Task: structure prediction
Amino acid sequence: MASRVARIKKGGAPVGDTTGADAPGDPSIEGTGPDLLLSANGPQPQRDLPARAASNSLPDSDSTLLSLEHVRISYRLRRSVVEAVGDATFQMDRHERLMLIGPSGCGKSTLLKAVAGFIEPEGGTIRFDGRSDLTPGPDRAVVFQEFDQLFPWRTVIENVAYPLRVTGHERAEARQRAEFFLEMTGLAAAADRHPHELSGGMKQRVAIARALALEPAMLLMDEPFGSLDAITRVRLQGELKRIADRTRVAIFFVTHSILEALTLGDRIVVLGSPPSHVRTVVDVRELGGPTDPRYIEVQQHLHEQLGATDKDLSGVEL
Result:
């Protein structure tokens, strides 16, 4: 067993970290065409992306944004040390949607926190945008599963604008950017509401808008739709895909659901039981929908990779 344990980095809450109980009134967020977004007030014309967000769409000379090489992470549990991640090695390109899936306890969320800079691995190397210093910053914005990520005393637009003010934007610019990303996520009509007046789905959309407003190179999403009802979950998955296509932000997404991974991902990284290693990486960019015969084949392959033992299947939605 390794002698060193992953260290939690010092500092306050992550700038992009966003998370109450459900309230009625989650409006549909299904789009109505390439230039329209359905908000609480009906179809709204989309404005142009802010300059920095638009720049994310430009081609890069180096396509690799994130690389993990032989990463090993352990943590203390009472008097013992548990090795969660034994050996994780994979890469992620700019603008890619990478899905991380595996059984409970295999270190999916732990790896996400390490990429965010919240903890340090005890072994191996993580490089983001060519550097190995992963101090938490606005280039990696985090959205968690919990609904209580938002400041309850602030309105929706104040919640979205807050991290912009913290990172040095003037008040007027912060509000303008907050308005833009609330419109993008279909929440313009809810700008002056407080979190207790929102449903769970709306709170997660505020969390996503707040993270996007930082214009990060990567969104780190730790099962953000896991606590939502099935209908809202599907809606938000569709909305996230549209937003990712429009902004070209890279997404590192942790999920227990094979279906969600197939729906959202460009590639799927499968972890095994702890101490985990990468079982396989599956490219699903050319895969059609559920009616595509290859879809069933890939789904079965993922089942097999996750189902080598009963232990592997624990906590995985098939």
Observations:
- The mean pLDDT is 81.
- Residues 230-247 form the longest helix (18 residues).
